[in-house]
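ok so i was messing around last nite and threw this chain in just to see what happens. nothing serious, just curious
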Amino acid sequence: MQNSSIKINGGNNYIRHQVKQARIEANDSQKDLALALGKSRVTISDMERGRVVINAQDLFGIAINYNKPISYFFPPELVINKEDLTPLEQEILFLFNKLPNTQQHIAIEYMKEQVLFLSKVLQKLNIDQNVEN
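result:
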């Protein structure tokens, strides 16, 4: 459900609102999301408040963590300009678009697995560091 009072500012306000919505729907705290992403609770708070722009890797991790399609976080009107992408993001999109449709689906699944694996590793490292302290 979309809140009509949200003003879209380059998409970031909408994205951060949707991140918070997904977290609340899952009954997660900011600390829960922070552990899943290998971030601090303060970083999650800063993301949700707009003090930190949510990067693509974090957004992808959030989508996987809350089992949401990546499109959930973007307003339908959002247009991403090529100039707004990093060179690496541009290369990823260029290469992705060269793949046949079936290979694109495989690439997406592979990326999801990699983000999930990395998220679990970071969470384990964070837990291990907390135990040592």
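not much to say yet. DSSP finds six helices and no strands in the chain.
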